[in-house]
């Protein structure tokens, strides 16, 4: 996994995340690898909890939080992305005049989370059927938050499902909100902010709150893998 993530065009991805608040990668997983991850959904022993979105008014659909130990491919992707996202996180903190507490490695960061009482794993596997959707939200699980995350598409749009576009909405300072929609391709990842991102303003830089979600799946079934880089309390 590390070689594949390292080979991405990180200059372009970083510029796109800065410009639009999100960026889609080239393929990271093969269709067979995507199907192998999707098949894990029905193995309940792999997960620590299952969330029915309608029950909590999060939308419609279901997702499951992986338990320890994480599947190798999930742990590998998470560890491979982290060192490329840390420079972006630190630069954003500098622009906003905030601390940048994130160490160089994911293991060090997760140890900090553990010491702060955030020890539960947060990578998730999501399943949406026809008519399902995900409300705009943020994945915040405690005081320690990593400012970027990644969602990986596991099904082929237009073949396995229609609809289900990935959505981000940016609340711009003193202006109406701006929305983005992207078709998440199979095996590709979308990098996006967890809570907010810096945007230029008359006073230099301001924090623009951001939320993400999924539009209604019109037909078929859509699976995604969510990589959050802080653990939960």
Labels describing this entry:
233 residues, 5 helices
Structure description:
With 233 residues, the protein is α+β, with helices and mostly antiparallel strands. The chain is 25% helix and 33% strand. The protein has helices at 2-6, 10-20, 31-39, 72-95, 106-115; strands at 23-24, 47-52, 59-60, 62-66, 124-128, 133-137, 148-153, 161-163, 166-170, 178-182, 189-193, 196-201, 204-214, 217-220, 222-227. The strands form three sheets. The protein has a seven-stranded antiparallel sheet. Strands 3, 6, 9, 10, 12 and 13 form a six-stranded antiparallel sheet that branches. A hairpin with a 2-residue loop joins β12 (196-201) and β13. The longest helix has 24 residues, at 72-95. It is globular, with a radius of gyration of 17 Å. The two termini are 28 Å apart. The relative contact order is 0.23.
Instruction: State the helix count.
Output: 5
The largest sheet is: 7 strands, antiparallel
- Give the amount of beta strand, in percent: 25-35%
From the spread of the alpha carbons, the general shape counts as globular
- Low-pLDDT parts are none
Alpha-carbon distance between the termini?
28 Å
In which order are the strands of the major sheet placed?
A: 1-11-7-15-5-4-2
